[in-house]
Design goal:
alpha+beta, 13-stranded antiparallel sheet, 4 helices, about 45% strand
């Protein structure tokens, strides 16, 4: 029994070490922790095509403080705003004529996006997240490490790291909406190194089978805090 127990501990140690090694290589592949730690603001300009309809999106964030996503479609403009105080949405193209307060579970789900490091799992240890090697898999013909990520609240997700590039390829997790669990997945591809900042970011993100293609990503540019105050332009 003692030998079996020691063997089990040894196996767990090897798994943890292997997962840490994979994450270290991932961090280096996307520019290194030092460069990511210097990111104070980020602006991403992109678009997606859904049902033949072009939707333009601009995401602006101040690290760990606030995030705003502006959406333009059918000649109308709306937004989502997340701050430490809460979340608000104005979506006229969905028939809304007023600013709506976002549900707490939605705010919680989007809160991690206020920190670009969290999206790329750069700061998982400081956030209290544990990562274990769950095996290997293949995504889009590319071999990947499959990692089980458990945050400090006990919520789990699965992350896939490309075995050749060590880029984050996909995240799968459950999101609770209106007391119902919904499986969500986000894919990352078309990684490019930014001229400013020294970090490597995915210029394409796929969610619910739709590609969001970013053409501009800027970091550490001045951001007016007033954009995070929910208002309706007159």
């Amino acid at each position: 029994m003692l030998a079996a127990g020691m063997l089990a501990v040894g196996i767990s140690s090897v798994k943890a070490q292997t997962a840490d090694e994979i994450m270290d290589k991932h961090t280096k592949a996307v520019g290194g922790a030092d460069n990511w730690n210097k990111i104070k603001t980020m602006k991403m300009v992109g678009s997606l095509n859904q049902g033949g309809m072009e939707i333009n999106m601009t995401t602006t964030l101040v690290t760990e403080k606030a995030l705003r996503m502006d959406i333009s479609v059918m000649g109308m403009s709306g937004y989502q705003i997340i701050t430490k105080e809460g979340g608000w949405a104005y979506m006229p193209f969905q028939g809304s004529t007023k600013i709506d307060t976002m549900k707490p579970e939605m705010v919680k789900s989007m809160a991690s996006q206020m920190n670009p490091k969290s999206i790329q799992l750069i700061d998982y240890k400081s956030k209290g997240t544990k990562i274990e090697l769950a095996g290997k898999d293949t995504l889009n013909n590319a071999p990947c490490y499959k990692l089980k990520c458990t945050n400090k609240e006990g919520e789990t997700s699965f992350c896939y790291i490309d075995m050749n590039t060590y880029y984050l390829a996909r995240i799968e997790r459950s999101v609770k909406t209106d007391d119902q669990e919904q499986e969500m997945a986000v894919g990352f591809s078309n990684y490019q190194k930014l001229a400013d900042g020294g970090i490597v970011v995915p210029m394409t993100m796929n969610t619910q089978g739709v590609d969001i293609n970013y053409k501009i990503v800027e970091v550490n540019k001045p951001v007016d805090d007033k954009i995070f105050i929910p208002t309706i332009a007159k």
